[in-house]
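pipeline/complex-builder :: batch 7 item 3
reading input block
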Amino acid sequence: MRPMTTPGGAALLAVDHVTKRYGKLTALDDISFAITDGITGILGENGAGKSTIIKILLGLLKPTSGTAKVLGENAYDNATVRGRVGYMPEHDCLPTRVSAAEFLTHMAEVSGLPPSQARTRAADTLRHVGLFEERYRAIGGYSTGMKQRVKLCQALVHDPAFVFLDEPTAGLDPMGREEMLGLIRKTHRDFGISVLFSSHLMADVERTCDRIIVLRGGQLVHAGDVAQFTKETETVFIEVDSHREQLVAALERRGIVVTAEGGGMTIEGPDETVYDHVRDALVEAAAPLRRMAPRRRELTELFEREAS
Amino acid sequence: MTGTVFDIGYQRYGGGREGRKRSRMAVYKDGFRTALGFGRGGRAKVLPWLFIAILIVIATVMALIAGAADRLGGPGAAERMNLPSHSDYYGIASVILFVFAAVVGPELLCPDRRNGVINLYLVRPLTGGDYIASRWAAFLTVMTAAACLPQIILFLGLSMGDPDPLLYLQNHWLDIPRFLLAGLAVAAYATGLALLAASFTTRRAYASVFLVGLFVISAPFTVGMAEELPGNAGAWMSMFNLSNIPVHVNDIIFGEVSEATEDAPARALGPTVLTAWYLLWTLGPMAILWARYRKLTP
């Protein structure tokens, strides 16, 4: 498996042959990868092992075998290293009766910052996520999107070198999801903090991440650049009004593999010449084109395809 | 002259990071503030301060009665009349202190687990053991203050009410370390039990009702049973009167028998057994709490 490190760059996170078992259940099976600077997405269905690997990297779980290092240190043996990383859990984790400013100041102190610095950092972080005006309101009165931003803030308030985000877009409406993905990009681009975020939504990972780790059933099935992964998993969907069979024959004569799908057809792994071939095949088959669009395979679809 | 506001953007933090020591201190400070309602709305302040006010009123009334007795009956009249003093205070106020612990203590643990905030603590440079030790220390501080402040007021009141305050200080200065130690004993006992009950539920009300019920029911139940049982069995049953456990220790510290325990058959078992019983009920909850939180993960 190709380690995701930049040439000469030291890994911020290094997972080396990690296995985690709960009794007879294997949650992670001999996983290895390394991550340097940037935004990395960890993709997998529910139960794939995403949260388990994050907990191991945070030092909250001890791997059954193998080693997991964060910033060069074994997090399980050294709780102090957790002062240099941030974590945004998937589920609710906010008090309702205190203000965002009070809560973030407290969280900064719990991360090891002196009280005066903690207050300044709390106000600054709230300003950067657009909650400065609302900072003295009790968190219980916030909208879901605002609460999600407070959750992100508490992970960033102590200025970590690395931040783990567990399903950060879960439960958000489309606008809230856009805002959250924008904040994640901003976290790396403007704040200089590297990100590992888990999701089961491929679209979120593709649009936000530089690199991707794909887990399935506790096993690593892919680790590499998002662009490469996207290319490997892209398809082109074509729908015509008539002469469908003639079009399929014309495409196959040009060496293009076509799969029937509903009323249309799908071309697997298109390259830069495929659109020219489709144009020529449409002319040859005299098929009136109704729709042609690039598409991504869903995660489940990819896994099913791989299994078959 | 005009000014320009520049957005200097995100600034990396280059200051000190004080690690676990600061983390523990922050959880301790937050626990202290939570218990007294600081940084929360008015409703969060009502209950703790109401109980503290009641405890102070009891001490003030005791001081006023003693002062009035001295004025009417001459110097030393309060002592001759055997009016309640420092050694009797915890016998009188222990029930209020226990209800205070039952109502306020769970607030330090239950909301953190119900809201999921505990998950944020555990991913910081802090272990589950650090968290519970800091919370325990915070509540012990509040309880000790609630137990000792009225005694300090009582001491000041008795000194001022005496016709010769300096002579009173000379004769009674030893009461100060005694009531501080007894206050700490009552506070440590109530803190452990309140936090232990809170560790089993995410609902503060459940823990509070359970604790108040335990203290209220244990007294009449054990007194009734102790009268029925013969010899030492009655004395041992009387040991389960939870309100009296720290009051027996208070009696040992002052070398006197307070009104609350003078009829308790448990006294027959002697100071060693009573002290060991107190330590079991104080250190036991601490050990269980530690074991429950030590391995906690989000």
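note: Chain B has one domain: 19-294.
queue -> next item
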